[in-house]
Amino acid sequence: MGLPPATSMVSMAETVIDVADLRCRYGDFEAVRGVDFEVRRGELFALLGTNGAGKTTTMETLEGLRAPFGGTVRVLGLDPFRERAALRSRTGIMLQDSGFPADLTAREMVALWGVTSGRRATEDVLARLDLQHRRDVRIKQLSGGERRRLDLALAVLGRPELLFLDEPTTGLDPESRQRTWDVVRGLLAEGTTVVLTTHYLEEAESLAHRLAILHEGLVAVSGTLVDVLAAQPARIEFDLPDRLDVTALPMLAGDVVHRPTGRVEVRTGELQDDLAVLLAWAGREGLRLGRIRAHHASLEDVFHNARTGREVVAA
Amino acid sequence: MIVALGVAELKLLLRNRTAAALAVLMPLATGLFFALQMDGEEGGWTMVVTLQLLFSFGFTVYVTVTTALTARRQDLYLKRLRTGAASDVVVLTGILLPVVLLGVVQALVLLGISVAAGAPVPARPDLLALALVGGVALSCAAGVATSGVTGTAELAQITTAPFFFALIIGGLFGSDGVVDLPVFLVPGTGLGSLVGAAWGGPTDQIGPAALSVALWAIAATALAGRFFRWDPRG
């Protein structure tokens, strides 16, 4: 499962977040329409979906900022809305928008947050996020990336046991994004549980242990990263040589689609076998298969299928 | 936590030039102007003191509370603070505290200036204290309520105008002597009447005046509970 053994042992034992039949409304509009999932201790759980899928609404409910319209939510065994005060010193939250007053400096903001978050600073968080040299600059003069890093610095202040990150890397340059990932990996290694939303699927693919993809307020896909990817067919693509009909292809385990462009696409659960059969056939017939590509499903494929309504449910 | 929030809020207030000018310089300048206008006419001082106090309540407390809360909400700072350990009451108290203190200090400084310029010492300081406490409470609650219906900090200049002028005009009515009871429905009348009575004016309307101040403070608090929002998204 890609987890260090010690973490796997723990993750089997304890559910940190339990969401059952969650429903959220804005007036008459039901943004979240019955969502279930759970997050286990020590894992990174990614909540994915398009804009308007219900990610942030779900996050804000977990964070205790809004009451659910229906269903139940338990965070560290508590009701996040009613028992917000008890949860705060144990959870770090990075909202989608930072929410900084423009005229405080980075250092003043860290000092204020050390008091109001209920979590005392145990290290120099500004140094950890490479903001040390900008500590006395007013927040309005920081760049977008620096503000996002300050935001992360505040969220991880005092090492909370549960961390919510709502699109932490949106708008960051590649280097800052990498630094954010390093910080998150460091926290995971220390045993922090992380709930992440992101629009960058490669980010989820490289960090997440388990995930759920929301679509129009419902869970379209959920499971461990490995299972979710394995449930999707792999793909082989190539250009069929001229004057050859698709019926000439050998028997394959997967489904064959012949596109009008002449490109053939094989969607298969048996990538290695089908590829071997195909290449052996081409070798025997002396054919060149143009621009051949073979790859396992990526989160991109899973995401696309979830949006177009092809149901995939991994165990 | 309240102290940390209050110190941060005071810094924000003083670092924003427009807000600082409106909250600090404006009432001081107008208050000073009123005091210097006086040429030793005996009865005029009541009006001067009333105006000084109401400008402190109106500008320093009411308009500043409205503008500050609206700006902090717009910045999503209020939303952020709710992700911390401070309860809603603590967050609001922390943000309001420096503004309230500023309003009280300013009112006292202006009164000091007036007395130094020749105004008589109040005959009933207890009534002055009542007006001070009531006025600050009422203006503060009204500011919280008004920020709930104010989308941006710029719009606060418009949304605060009706209550602000009602406060000043009512205060002038009230300080002028005995008024018809319905006039106490205007928010500043009770305050003006108490100030007038404190400086030797008629004291037979202390009851209705105190009642008017209390009812306006309660009504403003109720409206604050109804209209105040933490998140611009609602």
The figure for the number of domains of chain A is 2
Helix content range of chain A? 25-40%
Give the topology string of chain A: H per helix, E per strand: HEEEHEHEHHHEHEHEEHEEEHEH
Rg estimate of chain B, integer Å:
18 Å
The count of β-strands of chain A is 13
Mean pLDDT of chain A: 89
Indicate the proportion of strand residues of chain B: under 5%
- Largest binding interface between chains: A-B, 25 and 24 residues
Query: What's the main sheet of chain A like?
Result: 6 strands, mixed
Could you list the spans of chain A in which at least 5 consecutive residues all have pLDDT below 50? 1-11, 311-315
> How far do the termini of chain A sit from each other?
13 Å
Weakly predicted, low-confidence segments of chain B:
none
Number of helices of chain A: 11
- The total strand number of chain B stands at 0
CATH superfamily of the largest domain in chain A: P-loop containing nucleotide triphosphate hydrolases
Counting H and I runs of at least 4 residues, what is the number of helices of chain B?
10
Structural class of chain B: mainly alpha
Keywords (chain B): Membrane, Transmembrane, Transmembrane helix
Protein name (chain B): ABC-2 type transport system permease protein
Transmembrane segments (chain B): 19-38, 44-69, 89-115, 127-151, 163-186, 206-228
Main location (chain A): membrane
